[in-house]
């Protein structure tokens, strides 16, 4: 696939984000994380050419292969479920969005200790309670924030959430506001939690209205996935 019209797509998305910031009133900065999963390294190169410096992948193997075949200095984001046996790979990412359990948080912390530099990460929150999705229940966030406070190896810089597929606007707002509340709990426990990763191709405008600082966009930028 060619990405000839990517610049126009990005321009339109940026306009929609600006309008959503104005409607929402949170006055935040929003970073587009271009999710290139299923697309080749050419998608990463194309994103970089149109001014996108943040790229998301949801599988470690695919991400590492792509990193090895691009020569543009994008920041890589791990947005998918991370298996504990692949946790060492977090060293290659600028941000891990998907800390979804205490054992994973502990494993990531160990990586940070071993390299003597904290791993920046987001706590994944499962606001809707869907059993198919990973992440912390809203009621468990405060305890986990306390448990991880003061750990050198992991720096919790915010939260991430996924809205239920096909949710209506009211449910979307409830989920995104729940993630925002979880971020406040992290901040109250002393974490530098400014980030709010929420919103995908189908719901990013509502997410930005609700305060998202990072939107994870695949389809709206690159078209349908290739695998
Ligand atoms: C694939 C993926 C996205 C992007 O989804 P689109 O609907 O194509 O924008 C965002 N976040 C995560 C965690 C993903 O796996």
Tell me about this structure.
- It is a single chain.
- With 227 residues, the protein is of the alpha/beta class.
- Strands 7-6-5-4-3-2-1-8 form an 8-stranded parallel sheet.
- It has helices spanning 6-24, 41-49, 60-69, 102-115, 141-148, 169-188, 204-209, 219-222; strands at 31-35, 54-57, 75-78, 95-99, 119-125, 154-161, 195-197, 214-217.
- The chain has 8 helices and 8 strands.
- Biggest sheet details: 8 strands, parallel
* Rg on CA atoms, Å: 17 Å
Bound molecules: pyridoxal-5'-phosphate
Order of helices and strands: HEHEHEEHEHEHEHEH
Mean pLDDT: 96
- Uncertain stretches: none
* Helix coverage percent: 25-40%
Structural class: alpha/beta
Helix-strand blueprint:
Layout (H helix, E strand, L loop, with lengths): L5 H19 L6 E5 L5 H9 L4 E4 L2 H10 L5 E4 L16 E5 L2 H14 L3 E7 L15 H8 L5 E8 L7 H20 L6 E3 L6 H6 L4 E4 L1 H4 L5
Parallel strand pairs: 1-2, 1-8, 2-3, 3-4, 4-5, 5-6, 6-7
The protein binds pyridoxal-5'-phosphate.
Which features would summarize this protein structure in a list?
globular; 40% helix; 227 residues; alpha/beta; binds pyridoxal-5'-phosphate; 8 helices; 8 strands; eight-stranded parallel β-sheet; 18% strand
């Amino acid at each position: 696939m060619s990405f000839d019209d990517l610049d126009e797509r990005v321009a339109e998305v940026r306009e929609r984000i600006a309008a959503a910031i104005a409607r929402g009133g949170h006055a935040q900065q929003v970073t587009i994380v271009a999710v290139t999963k299923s697309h080749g390294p050419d998608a990463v190169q194309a994103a970089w050419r149109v001014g996108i410096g943040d790229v998301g992948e949801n599988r470690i193997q695919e991400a590492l292969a792509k990193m090895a075949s691009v020569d543009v200095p994008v920041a890589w984001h791990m947005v998918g479920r991370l298996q504990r046996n692949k946790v060492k790979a977090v060293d290659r990412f600028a941000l891990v969005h998907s800390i979804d359990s205490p054992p994973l948080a502990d494993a990531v912390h160990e990586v940070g200790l071993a390299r003597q530099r904290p791993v920046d990460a987001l706590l994944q929150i499962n606001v809707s309670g869907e059993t198919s999705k990973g992440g912390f229940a809203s009621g468990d966030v405060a305890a986990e924030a306390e448990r991880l406070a003061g750990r050198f190896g992991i720096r919790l810089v915010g939260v991430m959430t996924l809205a239920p597929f096909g949710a209506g606007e009211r449910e979307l707002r409830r989920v995104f506001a729940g993630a925002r509340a979880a971020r406040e709990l992290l901040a109250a426990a002393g974490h530098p939690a400014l980030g709010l990763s929420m919103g995908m191709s189908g719901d990013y405008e509502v997410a930005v209205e609700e305060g998202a600082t990072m939107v994870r966009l695949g389809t709206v930028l690159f078209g349908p996935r290739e695998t």
